[in-house]
Amino acid sequence: MTLNSSRGSPAFKKTLALLGFLLIAPVPTLGVWFAAFESSDSYGAVLWVAAKVWLLFVPVLWWRWVQKQPIAVPAPSRRALTWGAGSGFLMAVGIFGAYWLLARPVIDFTALAGLMASFSLDSVWTYLGLVVYLTLVNSLVEEYVFRWFMQVQLNALMPAIAAAAGSAAVFTLHHTVVLAAYIPWGFNVLASLGIFLGAMIWSWMYRKTENLWSAYISHIGADIGVFAIGYHVLFVAGSA
């Protein structure tokens, strides 16, 4: 999957890029809103699934059949793997370390664990199953949507740094919405700032390596740090 489109007049390409961006940008936030806040209603679950299907298929169909671009998925290069693993490890350590040093001393673990348990996250196996899905599958879909498709469209409309910031902002927004269901707003703001920074780093890595594997592997590392915090809150500190 390449970073630039080459067919058609510049104005036409920009129009298609803008339409492609608008087709995708609102969907992640709407999907997590229905999952987090409308999950008690059957239509909420249906709309969440519809959003996931939309995000999975529309980008590649738009790219191939509307923008008429070839699909090429490069194999992971040594540089991409090294950058991804190294940055992912640093992110995991940094995320959990920030939680341990800054957030842990002031968190009401009983209240937070109770809140998360209300979303059926009080079973170790349920939690670990969710972690596996979010870490391995959902993070790949997010990189495909935000670091590839959305950034490609924005690159046709604005400078690279602005495109990276735009895709990072949309990426952050849907995380902010879902975190609002689980954690207080003060922690949500701090987490959202970290998510935005991580997204900018992944965008930079993708541009430098021209390989989505670097961002994906780094994303896995960040998720491991996040879900290690969740495990500690739910099954260590929250049950003490």
What does this structure look like?
The chain is mainly α and 240 residues long. The protein has a domain at 76-237. It contains nine helices and no strands. α1 packs antiparallel against α3 (42-66), α2 (27-37) packs antiparallel against α3 and α8 packs antiparallel against α9. Mean pLDDT is 90; it is low at 2-6. One of its GO terms (biological process) is CAAX-box protein maturation. InterPro entries: Rce1/LyrA-like_dom. This is CAAX prenyl protease 2/Lysostaphin resistance protein A-like domain-containing protein. Residues 126-224 form the CAAX prenyl protease 2/Lysostaphin resistance protein A-like domain. It holds the Pfam family Rce1-like.
Notable characteristics:
240 residues; mainly alpha; 79% helix; 0% strand; globular
Provide a quick synopsis of the model.
Helix content is 79%, strand content 0%.
Average pLDDT works out at 90
Structural class: mainly alpha
The poorly predicted ranges are 2-6
Strand content: under 5%
> What value does the Rg take, in angstroms?
19 Å
> What series of H and E elements makes up the topology?
HHHHHHHHH
Determine the number of helices (DSSP H or I, runs of at least 4 residues). 9
Helix content: over 70%
Write the layout of secondary structure elements.
Blueprint: H1 10-24, H2 27-37, H3 42-66, H4 78-103, H5 109-117, H6 124-155, H7 160-179, H8 185-209, H9 212-237
